[in-house]
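Memo to structure team: turn this sequence into structure tokens by end of day. - J.P.
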Amino acid sequence: MALDPFFDQPTEHSKVKTRIVSKYFSAWSNVMLTATNNRENIAYIDLFSGPGEYEDGTPSTPLQILGQAIKKNALQNLLITYFNDANPENTNVLQHKIKSLPGIGSLKNAPIIDTMEVDQSTVQYFEKIHVIPALIFLDPFGYKSLSLRLVASFLKDWGCDCIFFFNYNRIRPALSNPLVTPHMDSIFGSQRSLKLQNILKELSPDEANDLIVQELYAALTEDTNANYALRYSFKNESGARNTHDIIFATKSIKGYDIMKSIMATESTSRPQGVPSFEYNPSLLPRNIHQLDLIPYFRPLDELEIKLPIFFAGQTISMIEIFKQHNIGTKYMSANYKDALNLLEQKGKIIAKPSADKRRKVLGKVTFADRTMVNFPPFEGE
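Reply from structure team:
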């Protein structure tokens, strides 16, 4: 078996993916170590690890995670890492690269490297055992190894979060192929899979993409132990089509907030200050001619319209507005503060303390988390 050509050269897509996983591992491991008072093992599990680096020597996720562990005493002593790839050529290279890492001997638990096929027996194994706090990364080349049961087998236990790669380009045609219906059923559930098969042919590519992800979200929150899910999308070179996504699933609101901040930082555009949660090559600085398209999408205007309706008749703090409304949206705390400032200027809300009593930073009136907001009753009621 030859090495996966995916690892020949690191694309910008793969670099972003690696950064998102590595950043989240850093934050997640800090939370877990603090929660256990640096007394219990935690784990990083990668079921489709690849060879660990690209042909040009750029480290991929496995080596980046181990690099973090080597630099931190608590992780040196408490982190257990498991790397699997069905291709033995990949695992042979990975094993060699791990042995060559400076300081790898400082890890109390040597990395475990395996070459199993991820199938139903894998799912059954993790369903039966208790999984210690673990971050699980699933990056299959296709879709055959991905299933709701696999994700659920990890999320059933405390402290476990899951990140997986969702290849939209492969999923959409598979949904219309009866030969792989069992695989689609395992990802979406049989009823959702059938619904998608019946509807997709009537939809545009963008509409189909939105519906597929919508059904995936529903499956994660209803059929696994995930309370929250997040999506980061990758566009093609023209920016016209979504190609694949990183999906994050967790039971923890803290994990959700951390990952949302990371994905927001990795966004290639921020129309009106609202992160896009996507990597869109057409909007990078080198494609400056495309930037004129951004202002036509005005998400902050939408938030300004929605808040008075959602919170009509309530008096509530800014931080509670954020907590109650932001789940499932692309809006960050700063976006809510901007929208509330605009609503106050237009006389559509009353804030205490008022704008003239709040401090200014660089000429801009601040909106503290504790600032109370009074929303008038909705006129349509």
